[in-house]
Each structure stands twice: as structure tokens, then as C-alpha cells.
Specification:
By secondary structure, the chain is α+β, with helices and mostly antiparallel strands. About 25% of the residues lie in helices and about 20% in strands. The protein folds into 2 domains: about 5-105, no CATH class; about 110-145.
């Protein structure tokens, strides 16, 4: 799956851009969210849809020095919703079970969410393993017994 993107708007007052993402399977028209009263897709001057599900407003935090074209492309690329498109592709694929039937067993049951512990506070992607937690506890225990 190849995720494509294009910048469709710039807002200098917010120092931001609107980036549209799409794929071959989920093209701009299939992602459209703005429609005319007759049900047809509302279109921009260039013929593309007025709005799509994957139109992302992205603030450009770099100001001094001003961002280069390469900076802007890197920022837009890094915001691409790869996982969202993978999910959309999987849901569209009849060979992949995306029914979520397992949810029926836990529907309307209350649970308590526990905040996960991360290796690095700035990176919530990698959770600590049980072994790493145990090692940290052992390390803390060893440090307190040495004092």
C-alpha cells in the first residue's frame, strides 16, 4: 500500500498547512466528506473534493529560520496515517475478519483503565516488558539496601 499526499491549503495566520492523504484503493473521491444538495461531491476549483476524511491541518512549528520545501515535505510525510489506511484496507478485504465479534462478550461492561508505564516519557510507543519492570524493581531494591 502506497500512501500519497498533497498540500491543499496554507494558512499563514496559523502557520499551518492542510495535507490530504489517499491511496490507490481509497482515492480522494472515496474519502470525500463534502457533498452538494443533490448528493454529488462538492469540488474545489481543481476538481478534487472540497473535503476528505484525511485532510489534516498541520501546524509548522519551525519559524526561524523559515522551513524549506524539504522540511515541509518531511513534516507532511511524517504525519501520514499509515495505520489508518492499513485498517481501511483490511476492512475492505473480505479475506480478513474485521467483524469484532469478540466484543459482544464484553459489551457494556465497565473496566478500569490503567496508565501504562513507558521506557521513555517522551515516547509512548514502546511499553516496558514484564522483565524490564522486574529488573527496575530489583535495581531499586539493590540501591536502597546499599544506602
Amino acid at each position: 500500500m502506497e500512501v500519497k499526499y498533497k498540500i491543499i491549503e496554507v494558512d499563514t495566520s496559523q502557520h499551518s498547512i492542510v495535507v490530504r492523504y489517499y491511496t490507490d484503493l481509497f482515492n480522494e473521491d472515496s474519502l470525500a466528506t463534502s457533498f452538494n444538495p443533490d448528493g454529488t461531491i462538492a469540488r474545489r476549483e481543481d476538481g478534487s473534493p472540497q473535503r476528505c476524511q484525511t485532510d489534516y491541518n498541520i501546524n509548522i512549528w519551525k519559524t526561524d529560520p523559515a522551513p524549506t520545501e524539504e522540511d515541509i515535505k518531511n513534516i507532511a510525510q511524517s504525519a501520514a496515517p499509515f495505520d489508518w489506511f492499513k485498517l481501511k484496507h483490511d476492512v475492505f478485504n473480505p479475506e480478513i475478519d474485521t467483524s469484532l465479534n469478540v466484543v459482544n462478550n464484553i459489551m457494556n461492561t465497565e473496566f478500569v483503565a490503567i496508565r501504562p508505564v513507558y521506557k521513555d516519557n517522551s515516547s509512548p510507543i514502546e511499553q516496558l516488558t514484564e522483565q524490564e519492570i522486574e529488573n527496575m524493581i530489583n535495581s531499586l531494591s539493590a540501591n536502597t539496601s546499599n544506602t
